[in-house]
Design a protein that fits this description.
Largest sheet: 8 strands, mixed
Helix content: 25-40%
CATH class: Alpha Beta
Shape: globular
Radius of gyration: 18 Å
Structural class: alpha/beta
CATH topology: Rossmann fold
Distance between the termini: 43 Å
Length: 306
Amino acid sequence: MRAIGAALLAWLALGLSAGAWASAFTSHPLPGVDGTPLQAIVRGPLTPPERFRVVVVPGSGCAGMGMVAERYFAGLLHARVLVLHKRTVGANATIAPADCGADFVRQDALAPWLADAQAALAAWQRELASPPLPLVLVGISEGAELLPALAARLHPAALVLVGSSGLDPAQAGRLQAERLGERVAWDELARAQAGTADDVSVVQGRSLRYWRDFWHWPVQVPLLAGPWPLLQIWGEDDALVPQAAYRRFEALAQGRAAPYCAVRLPGADHGLQAPGHDGVQWLWARLERWARAPERGWCSVFTESP
């Protein structure tokens, strides 16, 4: 099978550059579905009082967020923040997506990742003091594909999609393949995941188990039908998710019963970065405004110009 271009493989992961930064985050292992510890990191509010809690599900790939977490989440001043990593992913790992080890490739798939995340976050919620504070679920890139199922159990105040189309993964992937001129390779991959080869077979850097989950994973319908306020934020110069995918979900979400707000960042990339503007910190500042006065409504703080 002809290899899918590097840009299409890169679409599967949100790249985060590691850098030295003194971290207030601490290791907080949480049990996966079979009790195996998952590497999570947690940080309390930087400034009292604690007003809300944020659970972050990172993108695909085998790099952790530990090395960038302090800088990345600096704007969340009054939030307790937990970042949950996949099985086999080290919190401080800086491995490029193309260099993920065989153990990661063997275990990585959406269904077991969801089961692990549900078990781990249930355990974390049992640890927290009551009364509960508002919880915001943040999904970065692929991580957003877990949010509807997690929300059904965790009952968050709201969901945030960062660099995620909101469409089913296979639909968004096809649009990206067409954008890159890789439709033939995409169709070959579709045939491979629909075939009879064993789940452990590796195709285009991922197991067929991964691709089979990917091809049939529901995101669009549960997001549209869910009762949670929803923010979708993306960069208009995103190279990994096509604008057509974002626009398609945005149009569909206009009929959503629960609040939906879309923020498009001019000149920003997949990680919400633009020359002279950090869209991630802009997002956290708006979440802080919402947490100070949630009675104003979810979308009110996101309507101001980025």
